[in-house]
TrEMBL record:
Residues 7-74 form the Insertion element IS402-like domain. InterPro entries: IS402-like_dom (IPR025161), Transposase_6_like (IPR052909). It comes from the Bacteria. This is Putative transposase of IS4/5 family. It holds the Pfam family DUF4096.
Length: 75
């Protein structure tokens, strides 16, 4: 991946602190959550369909399901 589709350390720390304040939101292990956010960034930047998500960013269906749950909870 490249810098346009991966969070920097500084960006990740900022977002992680915000996530800790969210109630009823599962974000899992730190590494998994960061990979999830990088997957979302890849989808947004590329405009690709979920099914085209690179395996290195996770399986598309679990990423999509978590994204949907976060949307439901207005994260």
């Amino acid at each position: 991946m490249n810098s346009r589709t991966e969070l920097t350390g500084k960006q990740w720390e900022f977002l992680y602190r915000l996530l800790l304040l969210q109630e009823r939101v599962y974000f899992g292990r730190v590494e998994t959550c960061r990979r999830f956010l990088n997957a979302l960034l890849w989808i947004l930047r590329s405009g690709a369909q979920w099914g085209l998500l690179p395996q290195s960013l996770g399986k598309w269906n679990p990423v999509f399901k978590r994204f949907s749950r976060w949307c439901t909870h207005k994260v």
